[in-house]
Design a protein that fits this description.
- It comes from Streptomyces chengmaiensis.
- With about 200 residues, this protein is α+β, with helices and mostly antiparallel strands.
- Helix content is about 30%, strand content about 20%.
- A 7-stranded mixed sheet has the order 1-2-3-4-5-7-6, sandwiched between helices.
- It starts with a strand and ends in a 38-residue tail after the last strand.
C-alpha cells in the first residue's frame, strides 16, 4: 500500500469507496447517513486540484481509501476519510491521517481537526485512540463553528456530533508501509465546497 495524490480519472472510484463505506451506518439506524450521496466529481476535483485529495493505493495502484482536507483556522481540517470495506482493518485510515500530519506540520500548520459522530464506534472513539481530543465549545474556532452550523442545517445533529483536534508538535515519521508523495503548497479552497457529512463516515481502520 502507498499513499499518493488522487488523479482526476480516479474520482469516480472515490465515490464508489464512499458509497460502500457508508453502509455500516445502516445497522446503527442511521440510514440517512448510509444513503447520503458522495461528493460530486466537480467537488472532488476542486480538492484534487488544490492538493487536498489523497488516496491509499493497493499493489495494483487501485485506490482503496481516500482523504480530503482543507485548511481551517491554521489547522488541516479532515473533510472526509473513508476506507473501502474490502480493505478495512489494515490501518489505512490511520495511515492517511499520519501522512496528513506530516504534510501539515511541514506546512507550518498547528493541528489536525475534524467533526464526527460522538457515539459511533468508528468515529469519535476511534479518533480518540489516534490522539484526537474532543473540543469543548469554548475552544472552537470560528471556522469550526461555521462547519458545525452547516452540519446542523443539513440535519446531522439528529445524532450527537463533536469537533476534535490533534496537536502537531512537528513532523512525525511516516509508517514504513507508506510511501509519502509531497505536492506543492496547496491552494486554499472556496469555503465549504464539500457537503458536510462526517470525517470518517465509514470505518477508516
Amino acid at each position: 500500500m502507498r499513499i499518493r495524490p488522487a488523479s482526476r480519472a480516479e474520482l469516480p472510484l472515490l465515490q464508489e469507496i464512499e458509497r460502500a463505506a457508508g453502509e455500516p451506518f445502516r445497522a446503527l439506524g442511521m440510514a440517512a447517513v448510509a444513503d447520503d450521496e458522495p461528493p460530486s466529481i466537480e467537488t472532488l476535483d476542486r480538492f484534487r486540484r488544490a492538493g487536498h485529495a489523497w488516496v491509499t493505493a493497493d499493489s495494483d495502484d487501485h485506490p482503496v481509501a481516500y482523504l480530503l482536507c482543507e485548511e481551517v483556522d491554521g489547522a488541516s481540517h479532515v473533510e472526509q476519510v473513508s476506507v473501502h470495506p474490502s480493505a478495512a482493518r489494515r490501518g489505512l485510515g490511520s495511515g492517511l491521517l499520519d501522512h496528513l500530519a506530516v504534510c501539515a506540520a511541514a506546512d507550518g500548520l498547528s493541528a489536525l481537526t475534524l467533526t464526527t459522530f460522538a457515539d459511533v464506534p468508528w468515529n469519535a472513539p476511534y479518533y480518540a485512540r489516534l490522539g484526537f481530543r474532543a473540543l469543548p465549545d469554548d475552544e472552537l474556532t470560528e471556522g469550526l463553528r461555521e462547519i458545525r452550523r452547516a452540519e446542523a442545517s443539513c440535519g446531522l445533529d439528529q445524532w450527537p456530533r463533536v469537533c476534535m483536534r490533534r496537536e502537531l508538535m512537528g513532523a512525525v515519521a511516516s509508517p514504513p508501509r507508506i510511501v509519502p508523495v509531497r505536492t506543492p503548497r496547496p491552494r486554499a479552497l472556496p469555503p465549504r465546497t464539500l457537503p458536510p457529512r462526517t470525517a470518517g463516515a465509514a470505518p477508516p481502520f
